[in-house]
Amino acid sequence: MKTIGLIGGMSWESSKIYYEYTNSIVKERLGGSHSAKSIMTSVDFSEIEELTFQGNWNKIGDLMANHAVKLEKAGADMTLLCTNTIHLVSDRITQSTAIPFLHIADAAGEAIQAAGLKKVALLGTKFTMEKDFYTKILQDKYHLEVIIPSEEERQTVHSIIYDELVKGKFAEASKQVCIQIIENLITKGAEGVILGCTELPLLISESDVAIPTFNTTLIHAQKAVDFALANS
């Protein structure tokens, strides 16, 4: 079994789910008392949050590269970034390390393609929804049509993520708001919805909406275990 390297803390609310998922999936596949071999390095999210709002992506890239190098030196066989948004600087990780980097948009794209869908909605932070680092992979590599909420709805989802979810607050009112936004996207032809923030699946479940949801935390963790168990 290969060792999974995790860069966490963005936020720790979802990072702990990564740890739970990778271990439970390994146990499910191998049985007995098996668990995942993993190494996690975790950031102070307050620092990352401040830098994102400043638009200082170069500094964030430096931090992610440093943490990825730590994982490689510690013996990780792959790197996972336990967040959607910070994949904006994923090229800094791939440039700084020799071990494979498992991109969360690739994991999502493969899952959507396997489900046979062509048009999907994307929910996440404004950075994830509005910049092309995520949607470009889905469009160019997996030939998916990606639609996003209106500008006002994007701000609403963004605020729910930063003001509530990353702080461990999961309010029913916010859940209903997100469900309504998804329903609006369904009227625009969305066949599925990417929960493109690793905290969103903690608020919204598959049973809450009428179309398939793609839990990027779970999908990413499954991809990591696939890699870890390959040829073992």
TrEMBL record:
Keywords: Isomerase
Coiled coil residues, start to end: none
SUPFAM superfamilies: Aspartate/glutamate racemase
One Pfam assignment: Asp_Glu_race
The keyword Lipoprotein appears for this protein: no
Family: Belongs to the aspartate/glutamate racemases family.
Protein name as catalogued: Aspartate/glutamate racemase family protein
Source organism per UniProt: Ulvibacterium marinum
